Amino acid sequence: DAGVTQSPTHLIKTRGQQVTLRCSPKSGHDTVSWYQQALGQGPQFIFQYYEEEERQRGNFPDRFSGHQFPNYSSELNVNALLLGDSALYLCASSFSGRASTDTQYFGPGTRLTVL
Amino acid sequence: QKEVEQNSGPLSVPEGAIASLNCTYSDRGSQSFFWYRQYSGKSPELIMFIYSNGDKEDGRFTAQLNKASQYVSLLIRDSQPSDSATYLCAVTTGNQFYFGTGTSLTVIP
């Protein structure tokens, strides 16, 4: 049973560039949430996708956008990168039906460094 | 005020001892409570969840929830060096997960 997968593992970008991160949920899961985790901090909720729609969004600017595909996989896009966007980006999947707080399982993360 | 607060530690316990990790949350309407373990450089790994007041045991781990006092705790019995990690408390409020900053635990052989 495949768990949550993310790609790429590491990424180095420069300020102003754009980046796309990818996530495939655990088998049987239909909901994907994205988090940003800065060093020494807990994960901060970016947004959640269910049925190809953004269902919930945290306190992140519009530079952060996402998409969910019919196979439940998801992308996180960040435009106009800032130095402060350097972090570990985590994808978490769950099976939630109409609830959005079912147990979430995390992928290995993508480490983004902005120079 | 942060939604979820944890003592950042570090917390050190000798091997075989009980480690006690605590978490408080601000919203009385919070519905579900989770403990995750995160090794350095890795992603969070679910340890257990609890929804109702009282204790829930799973192997060496016991989660305790007290909604009236708005705290949730995690006890680790017979602590092992492999338990050394950061422990994250997560709370769901209004259909959203909120994480604490984590407590760093070191188990000394």
Summary keywords:
heterodimer; A: 115 residues; mainly beta; seven-stranded mixed sheet; four-stranded antiparallel sheet; 11 strands; B: 109 residues; six-stranded mixed sheet; five-stranded antiparallel sheet
Tally the helices of chain B: what do you get?
0
Unreliable parts of chain B: none
Category by helix and strand content of chain A: mainly beta
* Residues in helices of chain B, as a percent range: under 10%
Distance between the termini of chain A: 37 Å
Largest interface comes to: A-B, 25 and 21 residues
Please report the total strand number of chain B as a whole number: 11
Helix tally of chain A equals 0
Question: Quick one: biggest sheet of chain A?
Answer: 7 strands, mixed
Radius of gyration of chain B: 13 Å
Q: Unreliable segments of chain A (pLDDT under 50, ≥5 consecutive)?
A: none
Q: Quick one: biggest sheet of chain B? A: 6 strands, mixed
What order do the helices and strands come in, and which of them pair?
The complex is a heterodimer of chains A (115) and B (109).
Chain A: E1 5-7, E2 10-13, E3 19-24, E4 31-37, E5 44-50, E6 53-57, E7 64-68, E8 74-78, E9 87-94, E10 105-106, E11 110-114
Parallel strand pairs in A: 2-11
Antiparallel strand pairs in A: 1-3, 3-8, 4-5, 4-9, 5-6, 7-8, 9-10, 9-11
Chain B: E1 4-6, E2 11-14, E3 19-25, E4 32-38, E5 45-50, E6 54-58, E7 61-66, E8 71-76, E9 85-93, E10 96-99, E11 103-108
Parallel strand pairs in B: 2-11
Antiparallel strand pairs in B: 1-3, 3-8, 4-5, 4-9, 6-7, 7-8, 9-10, 9-11
Give an overview in words.
With 115 residues, chain A is mainly β. Chain A contains no helices and eleven strands. Chain A has strands at residues 5-7, 10-13, 19-24, 31-37, 44-50, 53-57, 64-68, 74-78, 87-94, 105-106, 110-114. In chain A, the strands form two sheets. In chain A, strands 2, 4, 5, 6, 9, 10 and 11 form a seven-stranded mixed sheet that branches. In chain A, strands 1-3-8-7 form a four-stranded antiparallel sheet, with no helix packed on it. The radius of gyration of chain A is 13 Å and the shape is globular. The mean pLDDT of chain A is 93. In chain B, strands 2, 4, 5, 9, 10 and 11 form a six-stranded mixed sheet that branches. In chain B, strands 1-3-8-7-6 form a five-stranded antiparallel sheet, with no helix packed on it. In chain B, β9 (85-93) and β10 (96-99) form a beta hairpin. The model of chain B has no long low-confidence stretch (mean pLDDT 93). Chains A and B meet through β5, β9 and β10 of A and β4, β5 and β10 of B.
